Amino acid sequence: MFNYEKYLRMDKLPLIWCAGCGDGIVLKSMLRAIDRTGLSKDEIAMVSGIGCSSRLTGYVDFNTLHTTHGRAIAYATGIKMVKPEMTVIVVTGDGDATAIGGNHYIHAARRNIDLTVILFNNHIYGMTGGQVSPTTPGGFFASTAPYGNQDNAFNISGLAQAAGASFVARGTVYDAVKLDRMIEKAILKKGFSVVEVMTPCPTAFGRRNRLGNGAKMIMDLKKVSVSVEKAAKMEVEELNDKIVTGILMDVDKPEYTERYLKLMEKLQNQSK
Amino acid sequence: MEKTKKLHKIEIIEELCKGCDICVQFCPFDVLAMNGPVVEVVNLEKCTACGLCELHCPDFAIIVTKNK
């Protein structure tokens, strides 16, 4: 129904991801969202770090950059500063953005630089062998937590909200249509925007924790998802095991590149 | 006179299908089934071309064409 070929490097298919991985669903959702924004392929730069999700940039026909572990946001900041007219989209995972690149993530949010971060949250380091990531829930097993994870999980969206992002949303691969709208809004938003996408990792996370195959894990996402509107009427204790989805924050704030260019102009005029 | 219903078209690209079962789970009318390494169309008459299988296929392996 939708022509994905327009945005894909068809010779790179099939995708590297495991059977049942949700990353492909997010990729498709992103392409539909980009199509809705009406931006041309040359106006978009897509930057990724290291990890399963970060392999995405290899399949899409935009200006793409596959960078070092955790530094995708740092590279993207560079692109945005040099070419402020470009739409820069960062594709990253939970380990990439919040463990190794944790500081880049919060400080880009603090600066409110106009980047769109699509963050794939699968609760684990999939590609490197199923190690604990900052979003692995307590008690769950990973290759580096054979007796169950003793740490608490990060709330990635909450972190971005607190650090000063303009737009924060959380979606799941179960509800791909809703995800399209969130990504579209995030791309069009001026300022730092984050879309956290809950996606299953059946190989490294699901199998070790006996959660079933990818299809079952996606169906289970529906049971734990609660919309923001519904969550507002619920008690805090009731929300403990739930995933709150929807647009969590949408505010207008001064954007970094605009402020920087204004300052540059002012100083250049002074020196004349 | 009995109305003859034109069927919608479901194309499965076998080289891209990984047999992950996601489309089978999403289909509300049991049109698809896993009877081997890749997905199969078993009940095309029931298909309403809702597109849920195509929407959730992570591997670009299903193309649904609505019959107008």
Helices and strands in order, then pairings?
The complex is a heterodimer of chains A (272) and B (68).
Chain A: H1 23-37, E1 44-48, E2 63-66, H2 72-82, E3 87-93, H3 94-100, H4 102-111, E4 115-121, E5 124-125, E6 131-132, H5 156-163, E7 167-172, H6 176-188, E8 193-198, H7 202-206, H8 214-224, E9 225-227, H9 228-231, E10 243-250, H10 256-271
Parallel strand pairs in A: 1-2, 1-3, 3-4, 4-8, 7-8, 9-10
Antiparallel strand pairs in A: 5-6, 7-10
Helix pairs in contact in A: 1-6, 3-4, 4-5
Chain B: E1 9-12, H1 22-26, E2 32-34, E3 39-41, H2 52-56, E4 62-65
Antiparallel strand pairs in B: 1-4, 2-3
CATH architectural grouping of chain A: 3-Layer(aba) Sandwich
Low-confidence stretches of chain A: none
Describe the global form of chain B. Answer: globular
Largest interface between protein chains, with number of residues from each side: A-B, 26 and 21 residues
For the termini of chain B, the CA-CA separation is 21 Å
- Total of DSSP H or I helical runs spanning 4+ residues of chain A: 10
Broad structural category of chain B? alpha+beta
Order of helices and strands of chain B: EHEEHE
Total number of strands of chain B: 4
Q: Kindly provide the radius of gyration of chain B, computed on alpha-carbon positions and rounded to a whole number of angstroms.
A: 12 Å
CATH topology of chain B: Alpha-Beta Plaits
Count structural domains of chain A: 1
Biggest beta-sheet profile of chain A = 8 strands, mixed
Give a structural overview.
The complex is a heterodimer of chains A (272) and B (68). In chain A, strands 2-1-3-4-8-7-10-9 form an eight-stranded mixed sheet, with helices on both faces. Chain A has a two-stranded antiparallel ribbon with strand order 5-6. Chain A is globular and about 70 Å long. The longest helix of chain A is centred in the C-terminal third of the chain and has 16 residues, at 256-271. Chain A has helices spanning 23-37, 72-82, 94-100, 102-111, 156-163, 176-188, 202-206, 214-224, 228-231, 256-271; strands at 44-48, 63-66, 87-93, 115-121, 124-125, 131-132, 167-172, 193-198, 225-227, 243-250. Chain A is of the alpha/beta class. The model of chain A has no long low-confidence stretch (mean pLDDT 94). Chain A has ten helices and ten strands. Chain B is an alpha+beta fold. Chain B has helices spanning 22-26, 52-56; strands spanning 9-12, 32-34, 39-41, 62-65. Chains A and B meet through α1 and α8 of A and α1, α2 and β4 of B.
